[in-house]
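tool_call predict_complex ligand=coenzyme A
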Amino acid sequence: MNTAIDDSAVVGRRCRIGNFVTISARAVLGDDVFIGHNVIIHPGARIGDRTNIQDHAVIGRQPISSTISTRKVDHCEPIQIGAECIIGSHVVLYAGVVLEDAVMVADLASIRERTVVRKQAIVGRGVLVEYDTVIGERTKIQTGTHLTGNMIIESDVFIGGEVCTMNDKQLDRDGSAELIGPRIRRGARIGCNATILPGVIIGIDAVVGAGATVTKDVPDATVVSGPAAKYLKDAPPEFCLNQLPLRSPEPNAKTHILDRAPRHPVLSRHCPPRRTVPSSKGPMVRLTPDDDEHAG
Ligand SMILES: CC(C)(COP(=O)(O)OP(=O)(O)OC[C@H]1O[C@@H](n2cnc3c(N)ncnc32)[C@H](O)[C@@H]1OP(=O)(O)O)[C@@H](O)C(=O)NCCC(=O)NCCS
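tool_result ok
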């Protein structure tokens, strides 16, 4: 029913294909593939035998940059999906992705261009895997985790839910920074809600406690936990777009950590000192120039 299969596509034996499916030019489906309703298979995608793709999945779309993206994207090779994979509902897989055999990608997850997921790995519900990342064999990633670009995750790693990883330490504005994701060595386990900074290496069989902020390499077979946040320095002026006052919700609210920080000498000359004003909006926020006028 209303399914569009391009003449140049190849569909294997005993495939089951739902309603409103698009199978684009040169796509190749192996035998016994299941495709749910409303699935879109982009040009040249290769899908192995017995793979199961659930409703509304998008398979092999090309990446697109926004007009202000600092990282421009290239046209990628078609996606390759191995045998016996499971692709959940509403999953979006980009061109250039390689999924080896028996990989599971759960509902709502997305995997960006050129990432490789090795066999039997599980990418959990709502996980976002960025570009050029490698996920090792049998590695399991739980719900809602963000795996950054240029990251290496070795085999038999466990990553809990809502873990956040980064590849740009200075939060670069112009795209000149080298982007290096963390490396997670084989057998390591990362607790829920941990935050791992760029380039950090988590050692073999190491454990990162729930909620930890990992700023330095973790030796093999050690357990680390706890936040590391503390005042370091003022933000370098060359990275600052605005120098605006801060305000707190209550006149007697506790002093914000930033207000305790020493003022940068250059900024002190050019900017008014920080001050606090009452607000009914809750937590401390930076004022926009307009807000500032009204705040008096
Ligand atoms: C880090 C962890 C492995 C340590 O477990 P443990 O060895 O049994 O440690 P304990 O519970 O005996 O705690 C030892 C101390 O560390 C503290 N601690 C434990 N986990 C901590 C964490 N994540 N962050 C900060 N402190 C932690 C405890 O409060 C305790 O402190 P105390 O000695 O002052 O009382 C564990 O607490 C953890 O965070 N596991 C991650 C769970 C997870 O995310 N699972 C994902 C799948 S659901």
